[in-house]
Amino acid sequence: xxxxxxxxxxxxxxxxxxxxxxxxxxxxxxxxxxxxxxxxxxxxxxxxxxxxxxxxxxxxxxxxxxxxxxxxxxxxxxxxxxxxxxxxxxxxxxxxxxxxxxxxxxxxxxxxxxxxxxxxxxxxxxxxxxxxxxxxxxxxxxxxxxxxxxxxxxxxxxxxxxxxxxxxxxxxxxxxxxxxxxxxxxxxxxxxxxxxxxxxxxxxxxxxxxxxxxxxxxxxxxxxxxxxxxxxxxxxxxxxxxxxxxxxxxxxxxxxxxxxxxxxxxxxxxxxxxxxxxxxxxxxxxxxxxxxxxxxxxxxxxxxxxxxxxxxxxxxxxxxxxxxxxxxxxxxxxxxxxxxxxxxxxxxxxxxxxxx
Length: 356
Fold this sequence. Notes:
By secondary structure, the chain is α/β, with parallel strands linked by helices. The protein contains twelve helices and ten strands. Helix 4 packs parallel to helix 5, helix 8 (about 225-235) runs parallel beside helix 10 (about 260-275) and helix 11 (about 310-315) crosses helix 12 (about 340-355). The longest helix is centred in the middle third of the chain and has 20 residues, at about 145-165.
């Protein structure tokens, strides 16, 4: 089995020499889906310390997403082990994945063992996942004016970056925080300070920080494109920072997506606010709440206030159509007993093949 897995890895990665050749031909700032996953393959081969019983890769539970021409997947649970999220992604025949690398409601998590990290990395390659990210803890608030909470947030974010780097993830998705009792301007300054400190403490890391657009609920930062752009313009290492769009959050924040003038206006506002070249990922969710509600409630694709036509128009806009798509919709079954992840993924696949 080990020989089979190594052959599979060789087919997919073609060794580090393949990646370096690929990178030279990739224009600066363009999306490179292969970058996160081939860095440690040689070391993994050399170590060969997994100590696990590996069976032949099983066929996914669901039919292959044949028309998915860009990375497409969902957020999956790591309950029972990091590798279980890869297994779930493989069951859905996905090419993208988002995970929590620890409990999202804890400041720090149990250290990831070398064995678990190696198994995860090899699992990602074997499952042919082209784009994998993590989402950080919900407790982190780099905009906090409370010194103790700010310090804990920076330490926790450093931990998130370290865990993601160990797993060879493309990036860590993070909310920019909330200003609470201070002003948004003061909080944005602290966010920049926190990111600079975290990046200074993780020099040489390749994993990116992906600032997620928010709905603007409460005192949340990042619901206006210009707030995220302000952060990007002031961080010390802008090459380490990108943007994660969330369709539910954008809509709730007041960015319309109806085909035509409204959508074009939203695209222009994002271009002016943080630059389209900085967008690395789209969280693809419908919204239970109406346009401009500033309430974050995700809905299944086509079952919310955005609707299928507007969602398709947004994610398939020529300026966004190359970006990976990841679902964050509720985990449940419909009345027919179908997993809604499968239903939602197929609807999005229909976006790409124009079959709605």
